[in-house]
Amino acid sequence: MASQFDQYFDNSPTLKLLRMQHAGFILSFFQQSFKENGLTQIAEEDLEALLDQQLLEMRARNVEVMSRDARFYLTQWCEEGYQLLQKRFSEEDRSYVYKLTKHSEKALSWLEDLRRGDKRGYTTSDSRFGRIISELRRIDRDTNADPEARRKELLKQRDVIDAELKQIRDTGTVDTLDPAAVKDALHDLEADLDAFMSDFRAIEETFRDQSREIQNLHLEQQLSKGDYVAHVLDADEELRGRDQGRSYFGFRESMTSVENREELQALTNRAVALAHEHNLDAMPFDRLPRRLFNEVNHVASIYRRITGQLRRVVEEQSSKQSRYLLELLGEARLLAKSCGELPNDVALHDWEDPLRFNNLMEVGFWEAPQRGRFDEIESDDSHDSESLKEALGRIGKPLNLPKYRKRIANVLEQQPQVSLRELVERFPVESGVVDVVAYIAVAGEGSQNVFHPDTIELDLNCPHQPRYAELEKIVFIR
What pLDDT score does 415 carry? Predict the structure, then answer.
């Protein structure tokens, strides 16, 4: 009798990894290289050097194990039969990098959960039960459409708040969690963070699967332009509707809010302090906002790349249709020529002037063409800065970046963030596309600024000939 889990043991890369001969060494290497250093990707040369060092230490204890070099094993772990690593070319680093796959992340997460359980020696039953009750209450509250029930719930919350305020006024003290409860909460939070960070690998691979699907459609060349667009839009809508898609896009919207990021940073700092206070490992909470922000930017770059592929597919398909139309016209001309001469009774030409024959003697004799001669160019030895500015001014209007930096800084002094569209509405475009290029250049100078994959259309303020610029949505953040 076949077991319901046989297909997982036969096909799951995660279970294959756990059953490999040197699974402990491989997972330990992944944990030390990626997780303990808080890295999501490592350059090819760096990871090869790390693995070479680990292999040397392992062979010192047992000469016969894993006798090949580091590059062989890294390449093998990227193959379809293993799927432990993925090797990609990083446009930012201009080099190949290695990243963990969702299968390796699952194996590490499972082992890390075992390690945490053995380390603390007990199960955080009270903490988890409290979170379960809290989540059940939230679901009941947010799905109940009865206004009276919501009013009673709010009044109940107000009574609890009033009682706590009265206790503070009367006693001057605040009830806090005992040390055991704090440890339970931090342990559970660490497990949630590990699972949350692992989700990004699955989201990223889902985006890449969609990208490969678009490329396959492009290679088949059997769909119309409308079919291309419809298929990609359907795939994008399906991706956004999945659990992983909703998780990512909702999280991305939260991370673009300055208030949410500042609150997350403050709460993370508090968690780090509590971990040190209770002799727990603070590394999972350290630099958490930056790690999350980097993950969002990385996945967003993949999404922008897919959007670019869609544009190229549509544009190339449109060009292909134009070439096909020209070929049809050429065939029509050949068919018309092959029909032979028209009947004699058909007037082919109407002559407005009578025919005139020129005398052959009136034709001039042939003369060799003369080569043009140019005067020598006299160089100007002067280095007049005004002349240089005048010459550069003829080429195009220079980018006055300090002007745009100051403009953006003045706006961010009054509010935490501002979009490019708001800036254009507040300061109308004066120099056409030059203003847009300047804003993009200033946005690229600050790593805190956000480039959304969604496109916007900006009016370049050309009344005599209306023009528009289509670009990514940009948000400047203080």
Answer: 86
Residue with tokens 């947010």: 142
Q: State mean pLDDT over 321-344.
A: 66
Q: How confident is the model at residue 231 (pLDDT cuts 50, 70, 90)?
A: low
State whether 313 and 418 are in the same domain.
no
Sheet arrangement for strand 95-100: 42-43, 95-100, 85-90
320 and 423 in a single domain? The answer is: no
For residue range 255-301, what is the model confidence (pLDDT) as tens digits? 777 787 788 888 888 888 888 888 887 877 777 777 777 777 767 77
Find the domain containing 50 and state its range.
7-104
Question: For residues 263 and 259, what is the distance between their CA atoms, to the nearest angstrom?
Answer: 6
Residue 356 is assigned to a structural domain of this protein: no
In the chain, the largest separation of any two C-alpha atoms, in whole Å, equals: 126
What gap in Å lies between CA 428 and CA 421, rounded to an integer? 10
Task: Compute CA distances 154 → 137, 139, 158, 159, 461, whole Å.
Answer: 13, 15, 6, 9, 51
Enumerate the β-bridge partners of residue 88: 97
- How is residue 88 written in tokens? 């990609």
Q: Is residue 375 part of a domain?
A: no
- Identify whether 337 is part of a domain: no
Q: What is the pLDDT of residues 343-355, one digit of tens each?
A: 555 555 555 555 5
Same-domain pairing of 325 and 404: no
Residues 231 and 324 in one domain: yes
Two structure tokens written together for 291? 């790690």
The Cα–Cα gap between 270 and 430 comes to 47
Q: Which of 95, 116, 81, 109 is nearest to 10 (CA)?
A: 81
Do 323 and 205 lie in a common domain?
Answer: yes
The reply to whether 136 falls in a domain is no
Residues 201 and 297: beta-carbon distance below 8 Å: no
**CB neighbour class for 366 (10 Å; exposed up to 12, middle 13-18, buried from 19):** exposed
Give the residue from 278, 311, 330 where a domain finishes. 330
* Exposed / middle / buried, residue 7 (Cβ in 10 Å: 0-12, 13-18, 19+): exposed
First to last CA, the chain: 63
Q: Mean pLDDT for the chain?
A: 75
Last residue of a domain, one of 277, 307, 330: 330
Q: 206 with 300, same domain?
A: yes
What is the average per-residue pLDDT within 24-38? 87
Give, for 442, the enclosing helix (H) or strand (E).
helix 433-445
CA–CA separation, 368 and 357 (whole Å): 27
Pick the closest to residue 256 from 452, 9, 404, 17 (CA basis). Answer: 452
Q: Which residues, 6+ apart, have CB-to-CB distance to 444 below 8 Å? A: none
Number of domains in the chain: 3
Residue 331: pLDDT above 50? yes
What is the dihedral sign for C-alpha 378, 379, 383, 389?
Answer: positive
